[in-house]
Amino acid sequence: MEYRVYNEVFQVLPSFSRAVVVVRGADNRRAVPELEEEFQSLVAMVRSDPLSESCDRLSDLEEAFRSMGFNPKRMPPSVVNLVRRIRRGGSVPFVNPLVGIFNMASLSGLVPCGGDDLSAIQGDLELRPARGDEIYRPLGRPEEEEKPRPGELIYVDSASNQVLCRCWCWKNGDVSKITEGTTDCAINVDSIGHLSKTELIGLAERVAHMVERYLGGRTWIRFMNRNDTSFVVPS
């Protein structure tokens, strides 16, 4: 399995970079009360911080969506939606340890993060413009189908044509959702220039450390930008 970011992504998002944490052999069924407590503490911190919703990182993500022709009020970047929900008093479920870990990375760094179950992937992982014939099934509503608009940046399985995430970091699909039974996954930690390579990798290292500490298994980190656009996913 290969992981590729197409050059067209950098034409739209010139400063885009991504740290990918590949996880193999994690036990996501474990009860980890310490991790869940840390997650809830972070949620409470964001809820009480009035600056969290108006910081430059989130504003720049919204502006990036506008530059791609999407209304960030109707289609917010994932981390913007997460912070907004918390600030308005909404609940944010822990879901399971792996999901909790990448949501903690997203909230602590105020950057988009997401994860996908590698057992659901039939081909290669690609971040690229949509052709318009791909299939997206919304998270929690697998019976529904959507088609991304041509040119929209999508994260997609090259073999099944199933969209894993629409509009770069808007919303995840159901097909590769992380469940309690997930053992192998790829967790993406993104930046559009707010974090240096060292800072972004540092955030990914914290993700990897928490996975290995609480869930076992092995992790690898791969850094991607306009100069490093592909790698073979460790097995």
From TrEMBL:
A GO MF label: phenylalanine-tRNA ligase activity
SMART domains: B3_4
Coiled coil: none
SUPFAM superfamilies: PheT/TilS domain
InterPro entries named among the record's database cross-references: B3/B4_tRNA-bd (IPR005146), Phe-tRNA_synthase-like_B3/B4 (IPR020825)
Source taxon at top rank: Bacteria
Residues of the B3/B4 tRNA-binding domain: 61-216
PANTHER family: CYTOPLASMIC PROTEIN, PTHR39209
Annotated protein name in UniProt: B3/4 domain protein
Organism per entry: Thermanaerovibrio acidaminovorans (strain ATCC 49978 / DSM 6589 / Su883)
